[in-house]
Design brief:
The protein has about 120 residues and is mostly helical. It has five helices and no strands. The chain has one domain. The two termini are about 20 Å apart.
Length: about 120
């Protein structure tokens, strides 16, 4: 039973991550505003994070370096929390969106770390 639930969890978790990654490529221009201003080449960062999300989704879904993919995904999402959502809390116009995104991303971090802990080694 555990093998089946972990398999289902991997796929259910990976599908939205892959969708988010593809969205980074399809809507890159809209997402550049979320890249911290101190980072150069915001469009490159959007594409980079999209590629990371897609790679993590594939790694988790097929369990090729899945534990590492889940752990690295948690670190990537933590960077979004620290560098995008937390600073957004100080902007009254973005505060509500930043809080919702922060809570969503904390949940994703928890899911990624849980998967990293329960996924079988390759």
């Amino acid at each position: 039973m555990r093998v089946l639930t972990v398999l289902i969890a991997r796929v259910v978790f990976a599908v939205p991550m892959g969708f988010f990654g593809v969205s980074h490529f399809l809507k890159a221009g809209n997402m550049t505003g979320m890249v911290p201003q101190w980072l150069p080449y915001p469009i490159a960062w959007v594409y980079f994070t999209g590629a990371c999300l897609i790679a993590a989704a594939i790694g988790i879904a097929v369990n090729k370096k899945g534990r590492m993919a889940a752990f690295l995904l948690a670190i990537l999402i933590l960077s979004f929390v620290l560098f995008v959502h937390v600073p957004g809390l100080s902007d009254e116009a973005r505060k509500q969106f930043a809080m919702i995104s922060l809570m969503k991303d904390i949940a994703i971090i928890g899911g990624a770390l849980t998967l990293a802990g329960v996924m079988p080694p390759e």
